[in-house]
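HOLO CASE FILE
Compound: flavin-adenine dinucleotide
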Amino acid sequence: MSLPEFKLLRPRNLADAVGQLAQHAGSIRILAGGTDLLPSMRQKLFDSQYLLDIRHLAELKGIRPQPDGCVEIGALTALTTIAHSDFLRQHYPVLPEAAKTVASPVLRNMGTIGGNICLDTRCLWYNQSFQWRKSCGFCIKKDGDLCHVAPGGMKCWAAFSGDTPPALLCLNADIEIASPAGVRRVKLSDFYTGDGVIHRKLQLNELVTRVFLPASSSGYRGVYRKLRIRGSIDYPLAGVAIVLKRSNGHIEDARIGITAVNPAPLLVKGATELLKGKSLTEDLAEAVGDLAAQTAKPLTTSALTPEYRREMIRVFTKRALIAAAGD
Ligand SMILES: Cc1cc2nc3c(=O)[nH]c(=O)nc-3n(C[C@H](O)[C@H](O)[C@H](O)COP(=O)(O)OP(=O)(O)OC[C@H]3O[C@@H](n4cnc5c(N)ncnc54)[C@H](O)[C@@H]3O)c2cc1C
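Model generated. Tokens follow.
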């Protein structure tokens, strides 16, 4: 489980980073906190010739409220900073709630929001050592040509298992992507492909630089619920984020995002329409929970059964709604 050999490149600034990415496109990977990348390299899941160490780029760190009411978060902002931000807790509480459940305190100190958004997808047949994968059979995500969890299929079902993206989807977040051609801004909901192999729409010479939360998403109540085996450290095996705004005892607006049960984090379609203008009852929470469970398509990519994970999406959605809508 030793690290393969690589050259570490330390760009002086963002322009330099983009230049180095373009120069070595195809044989370089971005190293932010390294909390996911380095263990994966030990498992020989990536063997890049170069690592672009962007950790020290101060221009990509920090939470900056903007004059127009939106907030900009640098891609290298540590998850601990997000979890403890008074500003975010007051205006966008679902994001720090989700951030504080990632991994463990040490990993949250190292791990960044950009790394969490760009996180690789996970599967029992993929996140294993080289020897394990060789013995049990390689898969379409890495080195092989078949899927062990959906035999006969050519789609990879490895699950996207980041905690903050469902919260960011609920907040209608945009991300900024830099490349030699300049910067582009995309909706986070358009960033993921839904395929476990190439799961992000990010070219080899691009990096995520900033996250934007719109002013219109400020002031919603937020709840995040997560299923994992060890409460102190593990990746989610099912996760539900909810934002909800009430007025006069009715739900004015609400959005629900789910994670770890599909190859992409997803907003639950139809949930907003079902909830808008109503006061929350047990039956309504149940109906929205059913909708969320229908959106979840977990396969046997983790230690818990797909049936249990889908059921927990239903249960968490119901509980989170009741918590968010309550007094
Ligand atoms: C034991 C353990 C438990 C964990 N538990 C959780 C958990 O509960 N929830 C969870 O969400 N995560 C978990 N993680 C994964 C990880 O710690 C977090 O997802 C973290 O946010 C990743 O950020 P990073 O900066 O360390 O990313 P890195 O490891 O540096 O990068 C991750 C990936 O994103 C790419 N990348 C990073 N930054 C950028 C950027 N700015 N632009 C483009 N690409 C980029 C990298 O090239 C790499 O492919 C866990 C990890 C470990 C080891």
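CASE NOTES: The longest strand covers residues 238-247. The pocket of flavin-adenine dinucleotide is lined by residues 29-37, 39, 75, 79, 102-103, 107, 110-112, 114-116, 118-120, 162-163, 207-208, 233-236 (CB under 6 Å).
CLOSED: yes
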